[in-house]
UniProtKB/TrEMBL annotation:
The keyword Hydrolase applies. It comes from the Bacteria. NCBIfam families: RdgB/HAM1 family non-canonical purine NTP pyrophosphatase. Pfam families: Ham1p_like. It comes from Streptomyces cuspidosporus. Its cofactor is Mg(2+). The active site is at residue 71. It is an enzyme of class 3 (hydrolase). This is dITP/XTP pyrophosphatase. Pyrophosphatase that catalyzes the hydrolysis of nucleoside triphosphates to their monophosphate derivatives, with a high preference for the non-canonical purine nucleotides XTP (xanthosine triphosphate), dITP (deoxyinosine triphosphate) and ITP. Seems to function as a house-cleaning enzyme that removes non-canonical purine nucleotides from the nucleotide pool, thus preventing their incorporation into DNA/RNA and avoiding chromosomal lesions.
Amino acid sequence: KRLILATRNTYKITELRSILSDAGLDVELVGADAYPEVPDVKETGVTFAENALLKAHALARATGHPAVADDSGLCVDVLGGAPGIFSARWSGRHGDDRANLELLLAQLADVPDEHRAAHFACAAALALPDGTERVVTGRLPGTLRRDPVGGGGFGYDPILQPDGETRTCAELTPEEKNAISHRGKAFRALAPVVRDLLG
Ligand code: ITT
Ligand code: NA
């Protein structure tokens, strides 16, 4: 059985493949890049769950295969949850991780360490071609550093230090990050749901 991963973000594809195959799903995992003719959907939702469902439904409808999608971001307490669903385009340039991270650090320059709590959030959605849908969420709580540290991961990984860690997410191995991450939690919760619905 074929399951489409409704994302073009190569880091996410790598993370999702390893999380879903660790969960023992007996399916062929195919990235959205295998369907270049399917246009990207606009992320017009106001929550991570709405956006994840929009992406999953669009791919499932267009390909005739079940699809899973992720919508995720960084939520900063002192900014009332921003950047949130706007994390990938916080600087105005979608997908420019460096510009997004640097703008956020500048905005938080005057915020003292004890007020730098933040979390990564992820909604993981499954959609079937017949319109059936499921969505679950996961979180990774932590504190924001003042300067980026570490070369792994993507996005805001170099500035988020998970609670209970001395390293940033960008200093963790992929296995260590998957074990505690918002995306790991959400997709490990989604895996049995996928297994049940795909039979
Ligand atoms: P797709 O829509 O194709 O999945 P995208 O990168 O645009 O790719 P999102 O809309 O979900 O994905 O944006 C997520 C943004 O949130 C991403 O660009 C990062 O800035 C941030 N983010 C999400 N998960 C992260 C993680 O595990 N580590 C660091 N930053 C993360
Ligand atoms: Na998004």
